Amino acid sequence: MPTTQIMRDDFTVKFDGQLHQVDVNTLIESLLSTSSVIQEINKELNPNNKIEIKIVALTPGSFEVKYMIDGALAVLPLIPQLLNRDNLEYAKLVIDVLIQLFNLKKILGDHEPTNVIEIENNQTKVEGVNGNVIVYNFTYHNIYSKNQTIHDSLSKGFEALQDDPNITGLQIQRNNGVIFEASKTEFDLLATKRIIKNEQTREKIDEIANLNIFKLVFDSRFKWEFYYLGNKISAYITDKEFFEEIDRDERFGKGDILIVKLKIYQIFDPTVATYVNESYEILEVKQHIPKSEVRQERFVEN
Questions:
Q1: For 144, 190, 203, 213, which has the most beta carbons within 10 A of its beta carbon?
Q2: What is the pLDDT of residues 41-54, one digit of tens each?
Q3: What Å distances lie between residue 117 and 2, 108, 133, CA to CA?
Q4: Is the pLDDT of residue 269 over 60?
Q5: Domain boundary at 168, 191, 214, which?
Q6: Does one domain contain both 153 and 283?
């Protein structure tokens, strides 16, 4: 018969920027996404366990949010063996996994690792799209690679931070030390949504897709934003020749049209019994039409 212990730990999220207040929608989305990730971690580690996530009163004159994790844990031999640590405090474990997931997302975005090597003591060495290499516990990596809810929640939380012009960075602190930090420029990778492929996912190709440029990023690691069939989307451009054209000083601007070969990743939604678009990738840029030429053609047509 397992014994029951109350285990508690806390951490603080600090929003960087010239601010003493945060937009309510940004704060709510950040709180909900972090809570969702923590609950999913708990389900992965011990489905029979229940934890509570509480917010401690905000500190006057700054903007820091203190989380407290309070959980009743059925202490089973599985957990220490799983992570190769004795006398583990469960709440601290959950926070540790949370930080490792943040770090994995920070170097991978929605890409697969460029290299994964299993090493001794249940450790995994992961190389990301930006060349960074980090060593993780194998269990953390399994959670990251299999749980779609975690990816959805991570993306929503960082997308809210990315869209808020007053927030320039994020720090997570514990025991007066920084255990995770990300700058505004790193929010883009953290906000990208990754689709875990399984029997509920599929891919389709639009051979000739017309995309109106909304936001340009001259770095293959980050997504561009477009309007596609009246809907705003974001997509990686994996066409190397296209970036070579950029390096040759071809000019691009907001409102230009790219005619492309577009891969669409879809996931099955059982509530409406159909596949819905989740993410996009531009495999080939076939033609670039500047905005000035688009306007001229419309004027002639009228």
A1: 144
A2: 988 888 877 777 87
A3: 36, 15, 11
A4: yes
A5: 191
A6: no
